[in-house]
Write a sequence for this structure.
């Protein structure tokens, strides 16, 4: 047993030695790694050295950077080609954006390691100078290793940053190339002559033959080889149509169906039906067309020559349906009571047909253009077709300007309408003549672009305008409660007027957002932007927003808001849990509990704010600079301003009083009207506004009548004569106060017998009110009722009085003593009053002879 005990005794020393050996070995290995400066040798040592993670990260970053440089070289070579179309440029721009994000990720991946190395070098300190004691060799070796690693990482980061800058320049180059290509296509001039149309006619015949052959061969290909795939794609497309169309109809029917039973619908109902019927039905059809094309493409049913034609046909269907839905929703040619503009029935029909005709002409031009591209037809065919389309659209605009669509003055929609306003007719004619003139001088592409924008952009802007008007109408106070959704929320969730008004404001903002997020992408697409451009823009908007040297993102801001909200809720929950489950059970003093709860609240909110700011991408060092600058300003005399600022924050967070409270602070008393970060505005009951600095409200005592609630006690003093019965007086007062409905029964009103006054019995009636603002009215009414009831019961309310007696002659001393004794004992009760009455009677009897003797003396003196 003794050898075993001795071995167990040595076991701690053995473990201590192994721990020291394990701590020394990594330092020695790190020194060997720092001495190796070549990347290849470093990568060979990563399998055995503790610096394997850092060097592995560096090697991976260097490898990724090398691949990125090769990709950049290939993209740079592609940019030098002169014959690039817009689709190719869009694809190259997308590759450049991907490369830019890759190189930025390489740099961001290495920067945390750089920060770790800088922090460790700061801990190690600078190398000792000459004459100073030498440091430990292990410290010198670690510093050299860290410096070498930092140099390598800095070199890679510098290369990545340079490549990022180069990719940015290349992206701008591709954007400039696309802009020039768009301008050249738009302003390209073509000679318009009879020869042009002759050549176009001949080419059009060949194109028709090729198109017929292509469609026939494609149908044969589908029937022979892809029949099952085609049927599956068609079935899935029909299923998607049923989901989008019937599902949308079932879910949103009540919001966009015009009810014929309603004879005079309100304007907000007409706006709602027009906007949602246009938007929901168009989006449902668009979703069906997109899914149909997607299924046909993924089942390999479409050939390369047929796919663009089918895409053009689907686009034509979507455009014509969108314009038709919008015109029917706004003009309502068959339902005048649902019409949004003041048009006659004939005018509504004519404008609807004009808009749909322009949409059909423009859509067919787009489909024929796709057919010409797929069939390889000469450019003259496209020019001739676009010229005819622009000419037709111009003629339709000119013809529409001569109509009389406006509602008659008597308001009858069936009556003949009035002419356009003078300015509107001129605008339509100028636009039509401009399109025709531009086509005739050879700028067919520009005319076609103008005609397309007049149809598509105008329709989208009109839909957005309807959305804005609907959002504005819904946001008005009291309007949302009258809508279908408002009544549903009121009945289902039992929302009150204020909550419904707030919900209406949120619904209005949501309508604005839907109109913007739907309309702006459609306008950008119609003006030449590509879908990939919108994707890149949305990605940068949500992930990369440059403000100076700081990069933030909307997504990060949203995450930061969620983190702050979560931290705030967790803090409040922890405060309640700690107060109710820990400190309350431990019978901790109430003041200590409040201090702990407040401190935890401040700490939790501060931590939540720090995490939220970091998640939002805001550099905390910038806030440190602001704080340092603020501290310098405090040193130069901003103590009072900063004190008021911090006091305002405390008031806003802690809320010892809020807007609408009745407070008393020093000589100021009134209602709080506004609390800002510098001062608080108090309105007195004389309607005087007093601006009180927040620091005074923090450092001084403040009385708040409505801090927790508006419950308050009110008092009415009452005095009666000594002849009254105190019990009867108290019963009468309680009866009167209990008859007031606004007086609370809990706490119960009561009457206090305060004192024996000099000439009365003094009582005080005390009662509680749920709202202290009712106190003045109730006190006035009670005083009137008390006076009336006392008069009925014969109870008098005395007033204080004194009697003064003047005594002459020898009896003055005795009478003066009696009067003095009477006055000194006046407060003792009615017994003293009786004594005073007797003394008064005696003095009155003595006054008569005394007056006679005085008269005789005066007479003798006069005779003498």
């Amino acid at each position: 047993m003794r050898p075993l005990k001795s071995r167990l005794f040595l076991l701690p020393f053995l473990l201590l030695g192994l721990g020291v050996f394990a701590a020394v070995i990594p330092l020695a290995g790190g020194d060997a790694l720092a001495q190796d400066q070549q990347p290849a040798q470093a990568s060979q040592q990563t399998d055995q050295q503790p610096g394997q993670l850092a060097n592995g990260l560096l090697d991976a970053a260097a490898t990724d950077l090398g691949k990125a440089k090769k990709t950049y070289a290939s993209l740079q070579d592609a940019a030098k080609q002169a014959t690039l179309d817009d689709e190719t440029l869009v694809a190259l721009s997308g590759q450049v954006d991907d490369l830019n994000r890759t190189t930025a990720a390489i740099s961001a991946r290495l920067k945390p390691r750089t920060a770790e190395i800088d922090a460790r070098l700061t801990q190690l300190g600078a190398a000792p100078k000459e004459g100073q004691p030498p440091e430990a060799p292990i410290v010198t070796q670690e510093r050299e290793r860290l410096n070498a690693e930092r140099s390598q990482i800095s070199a890679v980061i510098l290369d990545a940053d340079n490549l990022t800058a180069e990719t940015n320049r290349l992206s701008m180059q591709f954007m400039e190339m696309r802009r020039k290509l768009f301008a050249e296509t738009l302003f390209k001039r073509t000679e318009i002559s009879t020869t042009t149309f002759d050549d176009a006619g001949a080419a059009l015949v060949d194109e028709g033959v090729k198109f017929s052959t292509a469609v026939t061969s494609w149908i044969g290909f589908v029937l022979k080889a892809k029949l099952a795939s085609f049927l599956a794609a068609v079935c899935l497309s029909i299923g998607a149509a049923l989901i989008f169309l019937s599902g949308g109809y079932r879910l949103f029917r009540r919001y966009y169906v015009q009810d014929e039973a309603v004879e005079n619908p309100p304007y907000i109902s007409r706006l709602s039906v027009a906007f949602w019927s246009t938007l929901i039905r168009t989006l449902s059809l668009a979703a069906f067309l997109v899914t149909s094309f997607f299924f046909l493409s993924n089942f390999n049913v479409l050939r390369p020559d047929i796919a663009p034609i089918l895409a053009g046909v689907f686009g034509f269907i979507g455009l014509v349906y969108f314009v038709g839905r919008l015109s029917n929703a706004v003009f309502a040619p068959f339902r005048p009571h649902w019409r949004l503009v003041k048009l006659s029935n004939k005018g509504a029909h004519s404008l609807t047909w004009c808009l749909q005709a322009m949409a059909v002409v423009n859509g067919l031009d787009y489909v024929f253009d796709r057919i010409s591209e797929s069939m390889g037809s000469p450019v003259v065919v496209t020019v001739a077709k676009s010229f005819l389309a622009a000419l037709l659209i111009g003629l339709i605009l000119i013809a529409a300007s001569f109509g009389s669509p406006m509602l008659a003055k008597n308001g009858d929609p069936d009556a003949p309408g009035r002419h356009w306003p003078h300015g509107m007719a001129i605008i339509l004619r100028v636009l039509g003549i401009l399109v025709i003139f531009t086509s005739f001088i050879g700028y067919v592409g520009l005319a076609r672009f103008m005609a397309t924008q007049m149809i598509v952009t105008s329709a989208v802007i009109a839909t957005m305008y309807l959305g804005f008007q609907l959002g504005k109408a819904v946001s008005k106070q009291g309007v949302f409660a009258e809508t279908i959704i408002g009544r549903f929320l009121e009945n289902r969730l039992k929302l009150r007027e204020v909550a419904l008004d707030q919900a209406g404001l949120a619904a209005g903002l949501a309508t604005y957002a839907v109109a913007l997020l739907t309309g702006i992408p459609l306008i950008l697409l119609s003006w030449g932007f590509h879908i990939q451009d919108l994707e890149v823009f949305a990605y940068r908007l949500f992930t990369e927003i440059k403000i100076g040297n700081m990069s933030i993102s909307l997504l990060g801001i949203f995450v930061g808001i969620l983190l702050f909200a979560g931290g705030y809720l967790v803090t409040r929950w922890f405060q309640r849990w700690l107060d109710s489950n820990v400190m309350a059970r431990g019978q901790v003093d109430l003041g200590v509990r409040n201090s702990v709860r407040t401190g935890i609240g401040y700490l939790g909110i501060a931590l939540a704010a720090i995490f939220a700011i970091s998640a939002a991408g805001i550099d905390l060092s910038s806030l440190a600079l602001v704080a340092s600058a603020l501290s310098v300003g405090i040193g130069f005399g901003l103590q009072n301003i900063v004190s008021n600022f911090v006091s305002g924050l405390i008031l806003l967070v802690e809320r010892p009083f809020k807007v609408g409270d009745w407070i008393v602070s020093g000589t100021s008393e009134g209602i709080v009207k506004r609390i800002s970060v510098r001062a608080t505005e108090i309105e007195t009951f004389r309607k005087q506004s007093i601006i009180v600095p927040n620091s005074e409200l923090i450092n001084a005592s403040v009385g708040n009548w409505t801090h927790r609630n508006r419950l308050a006690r009110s008092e009415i003093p009452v005095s009666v004569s000594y002849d009254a019965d105190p019990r009867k007086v108290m019963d009468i007062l309680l009866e009167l106060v209990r008859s007031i409905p606004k007086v609370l029964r809990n706490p119960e009103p009561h009457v206090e017998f305060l004192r024996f006054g000099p000439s009365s019995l003094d009582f005080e009636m005390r009662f509680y009110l749920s709202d202290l603002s009712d106190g003045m009215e109730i006190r006035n009414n009670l005083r009137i009722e008390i006076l009336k009831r006392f008069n009925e019961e014969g109870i008098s309310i005395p007033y204080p009085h004194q009697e003064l007696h003047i005594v002459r002659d020898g009896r003055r001393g005795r009478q003066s003593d009696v009067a003095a004794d009477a006055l000194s004992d006046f407060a003792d009760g009615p017994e003293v009053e009786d004594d005073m009455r007797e003394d008064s009677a005696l003095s009155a009897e003595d006054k008569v002879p005394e007056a006679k003797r005085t008269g005789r003396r005066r007479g003798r003196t006069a005779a003498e």
User: Anything to note?
Assistant: Residues 137-186 form the longest helix (50 residues). The chain has 25 helices and ten strands. The first strand starts at residue 545 and ends at 547.
